[in-house]
Amino acid sequence: MESPEEWRWVWIVGSAVFAVGEIVTTGSFFLLPFAVGALVAAVLAFAGIGVAVEWVAFVAVSIAVLVALRPLARRLDRSALDQGVGARRLVGMRATVIEDIPGGSELGMVRVEREEWRAQSTDGSAIPAGTTVRVADIQGTRLVVTADTAVPPPLEPPGAAGSSEAP
Fold first, then answer.
1. Domains parsed from the chain with CATH numbers
2. Which of 31-40, 90-99, 105-114, 121-130 reaches the highest mean pLDDT?
3. By 3-state DSSP, what share of the chain in percent is helix, strand and coil, each rounded to 5?
C-alpha cells in the first residue's frame, strides 16, 4: 500500500472517522486536529505526493492545529457552567427563610425558588423568618445556609407591630 492512490482513500476515511469522533465525544477539540491533518494528507495524496511526505504533513498539521486550539479549548472549559445535578444545583442560590432557623443544629424552613427545604445555618446561629440566605451546602435532605450579607433584611411595613409610627 505504497501508492498515493490507495492512501488518498485511507486519509479521507481517517479524516471522516476523526471528525465524527470529535462530534460524538465530550471534550474540547481533541480529535479535530487529527481530522484536519488527515484531510491535508488526503489533499497531498490527490496531488500525487509520496506517502512519506503525506505522513510528515499529517503529523505536522495535527500538532500545529492541536497547539492552535488548546487556548480556545481551555477558555471554553473554564467558562462552561457547572449546574450540578439534582439538589446540588441549589448550592450558591438565594433562599428566603419562611420558618425561623433556631440556633445550634435545629432545623427551620427556607424557600428556594418554588421549593421548600428544611435548613440549618452554617455556624449554628439563629436566622429569623424573612431573612434572605444563601445555600452553602446540601446534607442529605436539608440545606445548610448562611446569611446573605449582600441583601439587606426586609423592612417592616409602616404600622406593623413594633413600629414607632402612630396610626
1. 4-79 (no CATH), 86-147 (2.40.50.140)
2. 31-40
3. 40, 20, 40
Could you give the C-alpha distances from 145 to 22, 108, 119, 136, 142, in angstroms and in order? 41, 11, 7, 5, 9
**Per-residue pLDDT at 84:** 62
Distance (Å, whole) CA 5 – CA 152: 74
Maximum distance among all Cα pairs of the chain, rounded to whole angstroms? 100
- pTM > 0.85: no
Residue whose entry in the numeric block shows the C-alpha cell 509520496: 50
Half-sphere exposure of 95 (CA within 13 A, CB side): 37
Taking the C-alpha atoms of residue 134 and residue 58, their distance in angstroms, rounded to an integer, is 53
Angle, in degrees to the nearest 10, between helices 4-24 and 32-46:
160
Distance CA 19, CA 32 (A): 6
Q: How confident is the model at residue 164 (pLDDT cuts 50, 70, 90)?
A: very low
**pLDDT(32) > 70:** yes
From the list 123, 46, 32, the residue with the least C-alpha distance to 76 is 32
